[in-house]
Amino acid sequence: MTLRCYNTGMVSPAPGTSLRRHRLATRLWHWTNAVALIILLGSGLGISNAHPRLYWGRYGANFDHAWASLPHFPGWLTIPSGYNLAISRRWHLMFALVFAFGLLIYMVASLLNRHFQRDLAIRREDVSPHHLIDDVRHHLDFHFHDPEQPLRYNSLQKWSYIAVIFALLPLMIATGLALSPGMDAAWPWLLQLFGGRQSARSVHFLAASLLGGFTVVHLVLVILAGVVNEVRSMVSGWWRVPA
């Protein structure tokens, strides 16, 4: 039995019903982004190992005051596995382009197919503290879907995706551009916006850490919600209503 039901509020679909969940643009961006993010985080940690200290302001060197000293990341986390700053930078810069243009194309496609308007539009209930607390309780009870509207994004999903897509990812891209000497020459205001190169580097690292944390939580929730069903829906687009 197949039922096309997308946030309509109609009769609850029966368990086992296949629903069209993810459009092609979302699926392509998801897997492209997954590969790019893994390489960006790994190569970024390799770059961090070259000078594992963070500063605020324009300058930062061995004898300057660092607000944070980072650990030396092991080879199984970095790209490449052995220390090589030049290769880490090449991987990082190449997949930064994939990451940035992939986000741009996804945003345009999501506006055209109304994915943002349909799934991420904030409603009155999404800003209600009582509703948000209930949403947290449902997650703790492993109830991730509304039985009447299983394809509808819950409030926690909406806020987390909005924060990542419209704030965290653009911040990563903007601070990455600010760290490029070539972009500094073309857009000097970008580096001034973050208060200097070292401030931009610190913000870039913090944003990357938040994005890595989001990825870990996302993977845990995928496993708890049913990894086979969730991954199948992101490959084929079709999702089965669980019992």
Structure summary:
This protein is mainly alpha-helical and 243 residues long. It has eight helices and four strands.
Task: Give me some keywords for this one.
243 residues, mainly alpha, two-stranded antiparallel ribbon, 4% strand, elongated, disordered N terminus
Report on this model:
It is a single chain. This protein is mostly helical and 243 residues long. It contains eight helices and four strands. It has a two-stranded antiparallel sheet with strand order 1-4. The longest helix has 40 residues, at 197-236. The model is unreliable at 1-9 (pLDDT under 50).
Straight-line distance between termini: 15 Å
Global structural class: mainly alpha
Number of beta-strand segments: 4
Overall geometry: elongated
**Strand residue content:** under 5%
Order of helices and strands: EHEEHHHHHHHE
Strand order of the largest sheet: 1-4
Task: Break the fold down into its secondary structure elements and pairings.
Blueprint: E1 18-20, H1 24-48, E2 53-54, E3 68-69, H2 85-112, H3 115-119, H4 129-140, H5 155-178, H6 181-186, H7 188-193, H8 197-236, E4 238-240
Antiparallel strand pairs: 1-4, 2-3
